[in-house]
Write a structure and sequence with these properties.
alpha+beta; about 20% strand; hpI Integrase, Chain A; 3 domains
Length: about 525
Amino acid sequence: MGDLEYEIIGYNIKDFEYRSPKAFINENGECQIKYGNNLMTLGSITLLQRHTIQNGKLVSLENIEAANNFLLHKKINDELTSLSTYSTALIHYFHFLETQTIGLGECSNGESCEKCNKRPMKWDEMPFRNSDKPTYKYRKHLKAIYASNDQDEHLARSTCNSYIGAVTNFYKYYLLRGFQFRNKPFEHEILQIEVENKSDRIQVSSTQVVHTTDLRLKLGRDMRNDGTKRILVPLSDKEWQEVDRIIRKERQIIKVVNGNYKVSKLDIESSFMFLFERYTGARREEMLTLRTRHVRLPTERDTALGYCPVDIGSQSNSVTKGEGNPDRTIHVPLGLMRTLHNYVNSSRYIKRRQKYDSLVTSCKKIIEQYTLAKENIGAVTFEDDHTFKTLEKKAKEATVFLSTLIMPKEAYIFLNNKGKPYSLASSNARWCEIRNTVSKSLGYSFTHKPHNLRSTYAVNTLKQLLAKGMSADKAIDYIQSRLGHVSTETTMIYLKFAQNELSGHEVYEHALDFLLDDVDCEVGNY
């Protein structure tokens, strides 16, 4: 017989539905459970299972109830739309526990136990010393894989922080419900802080509850790539050519569906978004809040300049990032601007804009209905009370949605097929699929993040400016202005990349028309 292997997997339940259970004592004095008639549809949820495998075959499986109870709580009580971060983090954590042993002298009866020294550690087993607890071991593990040079093992800073945050919240859930650990999983304190209210509030101050722990990650700078921050590494010419072929010419990406690879069509909006980042240096948050007012047919003045100046920031109801979030001007290539102008006048975009306008109107109407209903709440019957609570929930969702739009009357350029503005999560998902496709095509792991398109813009523009004879100081000033850097220190890192790639035999013949006029940007029918 072969050795047993254990695997933590996530299984997805689609169209998850839930009825609230109620406990009662029947006529015989027995505790019984009944379920209400109100069926809640909560979408999909990914829960955890532990599979036992022997000789390549599944021997047994068990649901990891501790994790699943927490996930159900977040879905039902906290009404989280997406639990993917929590599910992924807990899969990672419980898989880590399979690699740990409780150690000699730390079994539940406090005696040295050779059997305990070999078995995997359980989530609720908390030895006396912090260094032996699974929570602190996991924090140490995350620090190690963040610093790892192995591309298959390394995790980004943001991923490590989200994982430790999810695990911390998992344990808080049980601590707040009085779960009795042998020793505390970490130091946990609940603080009440008095916060001064704004002038429009009646009360002078309000109390906020803050949960603090000592399980935070303090990750240093990623010292790979010669100490340069990983987010600043540009794509090589070969890598960009491959990305360009996939997003602009073929628009074919590889998706993972139920564990299998599937070739799918990349939506035209994603093509435009990544091209915009690459050829303007705009941040994703800035690009995603662009409005139709930012798009126009290039004028004679634009043609003379070789690009279309576009103002972004509060003055044009879009977002800018950076210290102080200052307004700034980006330079959009003429070809890209013409393509976007054609797109926002296409039937595909017009349908999406109509959905957007309808959604905004509907949200405002729901909020108005809720406000009127709230004034008459005293006369509401029990049946109407359920209707009121449903309306209250919808009004809350509508308020949150409208609050993200800055200026709802002005439509965004990049809308999904439901009429909602594209989110960072959607952008990340599409880039992940592009990254998988590029990796398969190039034959090695392509690990660049979307933000590296901004780095690629900076380095390639600098190379062109330097090749045209512009001084390094002026070139840096230009790039700093386009990227919105407050300090030249960050921008100078791009200069190092640009100078390293220049050779004495390189001849740059492409004109400084900013980059897209000599590229076919007509990416097919919409």
